[in-house]
Design goal:
The chain contains 13 helices and 17 strands. It is of the alpha/beta class and about 350 residues long. It folds into two domains: about 190 residues, Alpha-Beta Complex (Quinone Oxidoreductase, Chain A, domain 1); about 140 residues, 3-Layer(aba) Sandwich (Rossmann fold). Strands 3, 4, 5, 8, 9, 16 and 17 form a seven-stranded mixed sheet that branches. It has a six-stranded parallel sheet with strand order 12-11-10-13-14-15, sandwiched between helices. A two-stranded antiparallel sheet has the order 1-2. Strand 13, helix 9 and strand 14 form a beta-alpha-beta unit. Helix 5 crosses helix 6 and helix 5 packs across helix 11. The chain is globular, with a radius of gyration of 20 Å. It starts with a strand and ends with a strand. The chain binds zinc ion (ZN) (2 copies). One zinc ion binds next to helix 2.
Length: about 350
């Protein structure tokens, strides 16, 4: 099969790799779509981690973890899946036995592994992908609903964490929600907050991105930054501030603004991580204390959110064609990453 190996900083090499063979208790998926995630872009900038590659004897890693495809081979012991089944796959594989797994908090598992990220777990930027027994039982694999394309199904992975975030934040009809950052994730936040009945304000300094975000029908779109942004949010909320502010970008300064722009008793969700080298942030602790403000984290999701995401996509609650602005065959993965890194489009998807 053909597979794309990340072999250096910003260097992908598409080459032949051994055809995957279905293990006795596993399956082989023909990858039809695999989204480029922000974390894939980060790894592309940094180059592959030191240590063994994805496939023994071949340098580099096969990344990609937002997968939609069709089963093309199944081992003899596999009962739940058959050739021809269409599946969506998310990366997280939990251990099933640690403190958190025993409580069903799989996203917090002490030894999480990720398809397309962890050593020994090749991902979806390839023609085929093995789903082992471990992935099938402890990973996140769901059937794609009839009528939903594999391309759109690849959005289920990023959408899952957005759904989990709004579940946690309790986004509702009487809320004004501010989304900071109009990348593909920010646009998903706008669509889901709207679906849950909230008024939504999107904040993004880039006019190009703001224009794309308008397709997701926010009630207001702000390009202001700093104090001007906070003033605009207050002006749109009778001086109070927003009920919920979601930080969907990797910029520490905007987290401080989020605390200024939220109302007393409101919630700030730190949805996007900060760069590894600079993870510190400064927030007005007195405003959080006297304003009874909740500042919470949000990472990954329970597998049920992935099933819900597929349902949400098949009900067309997300304008998937507006979100996916670029698709590229595997051979053009280098171009795909260049385009994704400019931020001039939204979601970029590889279609092997
Ligand atoms: Zn991702
Ligand atoms: Zn665990």
């Amino acid at each position: 099969m053909k597979a794309a190996f990340l072999v250096g900083k910003r260097v992908y090499r598409v080459r032949e790799a051994p055809d995957p063979v279905a293990p006795e208790d596993g399956i082989v998926l023909a990858v039809e779509a695999c989204g480029v995630c922000g974390s894939d872009l980060r790894r592309w900038h940094e180059g592959p981690p030191d240590g063994p590659g994805s496939i023994v004897g071949l340098p580099g890693i096969i990344a990609g973890h937002e997968v939609g495809g069709t089963v093309v081979a199944a081992g003899r012991a596999v009962r739940d899946y058959a050739v021809g089944d269409r599946l969506a796959v998310a990366p997280d594989i939990h251990c099933g036995s640690c403190f958190y797994c025993r409580r069903g908090l799989y996203n917090l598992c002490d030894s999480l592994h990720f398809l397309g990220i962890s050593p020994g777990y090749p991902g979806g930027f390839a023609e085929r992908l093995i789903l082992t027994h471990e992935v099938l039982t402890l990973g996140i694999v769901h059937r794609i609903p009839e009528g939903l394309s594999s391309l759109h199904a690849a959005l289920a992975e990023p959408l899952s964490s957005v759904l989990a975030c709004h579940d946690k934040a309790g986004t509702d009809l009487d809320h004004t929600v501010v989304v900071m950052g109009a990348g593909p994730i920010g646009c998903l936040h706008v669509a889901i907050a709207k679906s849950r009945g909230a008024r939504v304000i999107i904040s993004e300094p880039s006019e190009t991105r703001l224009a794309m975000a308008r397709r997701f029908r926010p009630d207001a779109a702000l390009s202001e930054t700093g104090e001007a942004f906070v003033a605009q949010v207050r002006a749109l909320t009778e001086g109070r501030g927003a009920d919920i502010v979601i930080c969907a970008n990797p910029v520490a300064a905007t987290q401080a603004q989020a605390v200024e722009a939220v109302r007393k008793g409101g919630r700030v969700v730190l949805f996007g991580g900060l760069p590894k080298a600079t993870p510190m942030t400064t927030l007005d602790a007195n405003r959080i204390h006297y304003g009874d403000i909740e500042v919470v984290g949000a990472f990954s999701y329970h597998p049920t959110m992935h099933a819900l995401a597929l349902d949400v996509l098949s009900r067309r609650l997300i304008p998937a064609d507006d979100l996916i602005t670029h698709t590229y065959p595997l051979d053009e993965i280098a171009t795909a990453f260049e385009v994704a890194s400019t931020g001039e489009g939204l979601k970029v998807v590889i279609t092997p």
